[in-house]
Amino acid sequence: MLAQDKNNDCDKAATRTLQALIFSLLLGFGLPATAESEVEPLIVVQDHAWAPFAFADGDGEPQGLLIDLWRALGEQLGRPVVFELYDWPQTLERTRNADNRIHGGLFISDERREFLDFSASLMPLRTMLFVNNREHLGDIQSPTDLGGTTVGITRGGFEVTYMRSQFPQTRLQTFENNEALVRAAVRGQVSAFVADYPVGAYYLSRHTTPEHYRATSLLYQRPLAAAVAKGNDPLLAEINQALTALPPERLESISQRWIQRDTREVLPAWLLPALATSLLALVVTGLLIHGRLLRQRLEEQAARLREQEQHLHLFSQSMSDFAWRMDSDGLLSYVSPSVHRVLGFHPEEMVGQVMTVALDTESSEKAVALQQSTIAAARRGELGTRADLLEQFTQIHKNGRKVHTEVAIQVFFDAVGNMTGAQGVSRDVSARHETEQALRKLVTSDPITQLPTRQQASQRLNQVIADCAYHQEYAALLFLDLDNFKFINDQQGHDMGDLLLRQIAERLDSHVSLDTLARFGGDEFVIISRPLGSQSSEAWIQAEQLAQAVTEQFKAPFSLHGRAITATASVGVTLFNSRQDTPQGLFRKADLAMCRAKTLGLNQIAFSDPV
Questions:
Q1: Which residue intervals of 106-247 are DSSP H helices?
Q2: CA gyration radius, the chain
Q3: Are residue 510 and residue 382 in the same domain, yes or no?
Q4: Mean pLDDT of all residues in 186-206
């Protein structure tokens, strides 16, 4: 019965593929060209406060990772894209009641399947519980540890469905959008809230300091997908076509744009008082030289100066940044007291040390190279008497942990370009760095198995195709689909299903000789073989041996929390060695071969061409 269900799924997939091909041929050959103004736009609905994925900027213009992704998909389809941004609950209503609108990205749920149809996965996303550090809530591992604390949440989001089903005793307070939710948390209206991790971290970084809130536990992680009104198959097929055709490097470029955007800060407010204090010190010194007649006045000014210095000292102790000065020999001549808050050192431990005293090895080499190149530019007359720089370095806390800092630097030179000194302000940006790393991981590895994603597999396959064509060698692509995963997932639960996927990935990676193993999506994996030689007959033999080695790994049961679970896989195999091959074409051939293997029974192998 399960095999029959899977066969039906494969037949449906083949039908959709054929429909997409026919649609592409009609677009390419059967229809006359139309003016761009006559092309019907894609209307994409999304949240206006879901940064960094989608949000309205200061001018009301749509911005974000998903916004750029949909513009790229529109280019793939040759259609302009119009964005409509609303509060989250309205985005669902606008999509379910219109045949021409697309929801730009949301989680799939049974409740939403009643009125929406979903596309292939756009990207995975984690949702976490955030708690207020200042409330001293203790060691919070899940919402059940919060007791009677009210938890903030976005109205209409999947988070509401999840919390009410998994933690029904938890009191929830809803807000219209994520920014309103985080603002309320910062103001103290709630002491904990649930949000998608990059989104919560993004708004926290803009409305409070890093130590105010922390993410305590992962509640779930699920793929984002686009959605259309129920039954709108033509529009859904068009979306999936564009997703398949979108080059992986384009998706990576879009993601990197929002992962690595620099946040440039203005000079801190203490700097002007500090400069005024230094100027006053010079005036006092000059007056002392002029003699005893001004002594009384100078003493009064000195008293005021000491008071200002005390205020400056107290202010610098409480800063989250620290200031420093360096002399012409590269030695630190001043470090503000706030360095203890950031790096754990007292100023006297650093004064007189080389500038790289608290940098890790890589950042130390970077700082020395930066100093040398800046001095060389000054000696060539390119910089004048001062250079302003903004750089990022990794520093080592006194307790040994790494601290990621952003440093605003001013370097001073004499008339011939020799460095006379430098000064700067260093800021702890570790929280932002962690957010960037988390976003980067979202698009480069599968969160469940830690294997490369479909996009990464496409990039690697492209490279192997080129290598095989150049060396005139063959390689094989294997497409695996689990035979009974839906039954296991439904009967044992999603957690057990995820554990099974991880064990399968570990077993294949450890016991099968292969080039690349990737999770293609759902219960599907792809394997790219190592080079199999220049003779096709010998390559087919090796490809068959590799496929048999894969199916052998499914003969022993898997242990899931003490339960013995039997799982099998159908394997489709295809060979390649031509520059005319493409990742999309090879995936399709191997997928069709896998569908034929389904018809043979469980744990079977089929080939795209006769062995």
A1: 110-113, 158-166, 178-187, 197-207, 233-245
A2: 30
A3: no
A4: 89
Per DSSP, the residues of 267-316 read PPTTHHHHHHHHHHHHHHHHHHHT-GGGHHHHHHHHHHHHHHHHHHHHHH
**Full residue range of the structural domain in which residue 310 is found:** 264-315
Structure confidence by residue, pLDDT tens digits, 395-413: 999 999 999 998 999 999 9
Instruction: Characterize the bridge pairing of strands 569-576 and 605-607.
Output: parallel
Q: Which residue has the higher pLDDT, 111 or 1?
A: 111
| Residues β-bridged to residue 262 | none
End-to-end CA distance of the chain: 29
**Is 330 inside any structural domain?**
yes
Q: Same domain for 345 and 468? A: no
Name the pTM for this structure.
0.40
CA distance readout (Å), 448 to 195, 294, 499, 500, 528: 20, 76, 8, 10, 20
Non-local (6+) Cβ contacts of 570 within 8 A are: 6, 480, 481, 483, 594, 597, 598, 600, 602, 603, 604, 605, 606
Asked if residue 483 is part of any domain, the answer here is: yes
* Pairwise CA distance, residues 215 & 161, whole Å: 20
Q: Does residue 223 have a cis peptide bond before it, meaning omega lies within 30 degrees of 0?
A: no
Task: Note the pLDDT tens digit of each residue in 494-509.
Answer: 888 889 999 998 988 8
Q: How confident is the model at residue 211 (pLDDT cuts 50, 70, 90)?
A: confident
CA 380/CA 365 separation, integer angstroms: 23
Quick check: is 124 in a domain? Answer: no
Same-domain pairing of 513 and 552: yes
- How many domains does the chain contain in total? 4
CATH code at position 550: 3.30.70.270
Same domain, 294 and 327: no
Looking at residue 578, its pLDDT comes to 87
Distance CA 569, CA 500 (A): 13
pLDDT of residue 579: 80
Residues 333 and 305 in one domain: no
Q: In whole angstroms, what is the distance from residue 426 CA to residue 525 CA?
A: 46
Q: Specify the pLDDT at position 99.
A: 84
Please name which of 507, 501, 511, 464 lies closest in space to residue 481, comparing C-alpha atoms: 501
What is the overall mean pLDDT for the chain? 82
List the beta strands (DSSP E) in 31-189. Answer: 42-47, 49-50, 54-56, 62-63, 81-86, 101-107, 116-132, 151-154, 172-175
Judge whether 572 and 591 are in contact, CB under 8 Å.
yes
pLDDT tens digit sequence for 85-102:
999 889 999 998 888 899
**Both 337 and 395 in a single domain?**
yes
Query: Which H/E stretch holds residue 452?
Result: none
- Residue range 270-296: mean pLDDT, rounded: 50
593 close to 573: Cβ distance less than 8 angstroms? yes
What CATH number is associated with residue 155? 3.40.190.10
Q: Are 571 and 454 members of one domain?
A: yes
Q: Which of residues 386, 401, 428 is at a domain's end?
A: 428
Domain annotation covers residue 182: yes
Note whether 552 and 420 are same-domain residues: no
Whichever domain contains 356, its CATH number is: 3.30.450.20
Domain boundary among 379, 402, 428: 428
- Given a contact cutoff of 8 angstroms between Cβ atoms, the answer to whether 211 and 220 are in contact is no
